[in-house]
Design the sequence.
């Protein structure tokens, strides 16, 4: 149905449809009561499972030299490539969360993107990272559509990140930002026997469609937007 | 613009809260529902929003408009609730049973618009709702979301395009 919406007609339309949402006459009383500590206000929204959640905030500025790519290895048939030449100013970013410390220790150009190496440490000796089987989505929702990761890789506006880690399976999380860039969050699956408390887990992520600029002297600068960070959740060790 | 700064005592604060709730509760409730697509979560978000409003009443100095201030709190509250899980499953399809029965007659296009809005990605939905639904200007939207005006403009443009694509060529004034 074709229609022209102004701000007024837009809000009138939604207000008609949502007119069933009426004012709660007790809201003020509950708010004041909660402020006085009479009763809890917020319902707990608890996760049904505990998973590893690591979302990194990266801000990187630096000069990257263009280089010839050298194939060093392939991983799981994805066709990833390492470039032996690291960027001149390696990314060193460390984030201390409550039970995990995340470091981005190295970065390389890899085809059209930058490969970043992360190091993750459990800093709480009473917790181990835990990943519940079945949580890894084969599909995610993008723009209201369910798409597979393969389909996303074909979309130049999106970043699809796969993880390689030496321990086991991996999963990815990604998002689309306003600048056509990406958000990377990486995690690796471990069973509780394969990592000890305080152990480290190294994994790698490549990303594409970075915003690049080239200065007059041919230096390529790669910038990543600052991203949101979330806490990591860890499973208590029995 | 009402000035909510400097209530002198508990009674003043309560009275100011009542005024704000009276003025904005329905708007905030509908906003939160369109953001979260869940009536129960929206109700929680509304309570949490006005609790934060009540707590920060004394420190609000009127740098932004009152509505911008409250919408900023509401959006942030919804955002936090929406991000409380990790691999959350986001259902962007609102079904009729999720929406309370309308108190006034509505048109099919009203339903279509609501469903198109909730299908927008969150970042686009935020700006569309604040700009078109809450009638904030670009500067106020930027302030509410803590982003640049150019980001707001870009998201508005993309949001309009997506709405247009979902609604068979409907137009949205800039």
Sequence:
């Amino acid at each position: 149905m074709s229609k022209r919406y102004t701000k007024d007609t837009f809000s009138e339309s939604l207000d008609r449809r949502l007119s069933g949402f009426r004012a709660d006459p007790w809201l003020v009383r509950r708010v004041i009561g909660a402020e006085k500590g009479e009763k809890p206000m917020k319902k707990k929204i608890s996760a049904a499972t505990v998973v590893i959640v690591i979302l990194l905030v990266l801000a990187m500025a630096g000069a990257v030299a263009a280089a010839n790519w050298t194939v060093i290895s392939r991983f799981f048939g994805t066709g990833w490539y390492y470039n032996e030449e690291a960027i001149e100013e390696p990314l060193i970013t460390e984030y201390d969360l409550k039970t995990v410390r995340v470091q981005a220790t190295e970065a390389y150009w890899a085809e059209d993107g930058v490969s970043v190496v992360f190091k993750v440490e459990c800093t709480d000796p009473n917790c181990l990272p835990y990943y519940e089987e079945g949580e890894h989505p084969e599909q995610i929702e993008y723009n209201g559509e369910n798409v597979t990761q393969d389909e996303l890789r074909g979309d130049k506006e999106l970043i699809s990140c796969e993880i390689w880690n030496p321990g086991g399976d991996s999963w990815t999380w990604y998002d689309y930002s306003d600048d056509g860039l990406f958000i990377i969050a990486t995690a690796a699956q471990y069973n509780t026997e394969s990592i000890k408390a305080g152990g480290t887990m190294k994994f790698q992520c490549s990303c594409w469609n970075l915003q690049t600029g080239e200065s007059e002297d041919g230096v390529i600068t790669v910038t990543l937007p600052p991203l949101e960070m979330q806490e990591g959740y860890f499973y208590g060790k029995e | 613009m009402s000035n909510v700064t400097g209530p002198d005592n508990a009674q003043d604060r309560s009275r100011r809260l009542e005024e704000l709730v009276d003025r904005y509760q329905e708007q905030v409730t509908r906003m939160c529902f369109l953001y979260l697509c869940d009536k129960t979560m929206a109700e929680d978000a509304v309570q949490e929003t006005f609790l934060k409003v009540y707590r920060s009443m004394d420190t609000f100095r009127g740098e932004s408009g009152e509505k911008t201030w409250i919408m900023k709190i509401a959006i942030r509250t919804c955002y936090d609730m929406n991000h409380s899980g990790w691999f959350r499953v986001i259902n962007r399809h609102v079904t009729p049973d999720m929406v309370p029965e309308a108190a006034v007659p509505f048109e099919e296009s009203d339903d279509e618009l609501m469903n198109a809005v909730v299908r927008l990605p969150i970042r686009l939905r935020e700006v569309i709702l604040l700009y078109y639904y809450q009638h904030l200007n670009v500067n106020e939207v930027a302030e509410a979301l803590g982003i640049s005006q150019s980001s707001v403009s870009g998201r508005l443009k993309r949001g309009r395009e997506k709405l247009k694509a979902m609604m068979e060529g409907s137009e949205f004034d800039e």
Observations:
- The first strand of chain B starts at residue 171 and ends at 172.
- The two ends of chain B are 24 Å apart (CA to CA).
- Chain B touches chain A through 68 residues (CB under 8 Å).
